[in-house]
Design brief:
Elements: E1 22-23, E2 30-32, E3 39-41, H1 44-47, E4 58-60, H2 61-73, E5 79-84, H3 89-100, H4 109-115, H5 123-128, E6 138-144, H6 176-190, E7 194-195, E8 202-204, H7 208-213, E9 218-219
Length: 230
Amino acid sequence: MITRTDAPIVIEPTVSPPPGIGVRECGEPLEEVAGVPGVHAGPAYHRRGIAAAGSRIFLRRRVLAALRSASAALPDGVDLLVWDGLRTLETQAEIVESFRRTLPDPGDDATVERYLALPPADREEFTASPPPHTTGGAVDVTLCDPSGRELDLGAEFDEFNERSWLTHYENDSRSEYRRLRRMLYWTMLGAGFAPYSWEFWHYELGTMVSAAFHGERFAEYGAAVPWRNP
């Protein structure tokens, strides 16, 4: 039998937003990531001083339920740690600008868009193609111990380089990073999530990316935060 850590990760580069996918908002409410057995909240952006990022993490109800299911499928002694979920447009813009300042060319939108969704230009774009984290259906998650201490999966959160790519360690058969990334990947897929090829920690459910991954025409989640004029 193939186990979660023996099965390879094979994924085509993710295109976001995927073409040809519409949005049909289902109206599902948000819930806080708190008090869920096996799922720990570690609000990374708040802890890093992103001014617009709050100290609490929210996700759509079904996303949180799916995380609970994923955690229950993990081996004993391994839990899930959620770094981020719902973001306002202010938070998204601040994260994007912070990343731009680290680039040799701050105007390099191709590199920015590989790792972060650019803030929409107008309300129409926001409605038609909301950034995944504004929907409450995108989650940044990793593995941790039962005390919430994160395990080392071979790259830091928001380490925007090749080490963060989902399959970066796939060719290293001796790598503990490969074993843990496979564990996270197959557990999250088993709970219904869609992966993101450029970040091992980013998964989506009910979003446009998730719809494309699962062969569906419409996303269930539109924007769950208000429009803000850039």
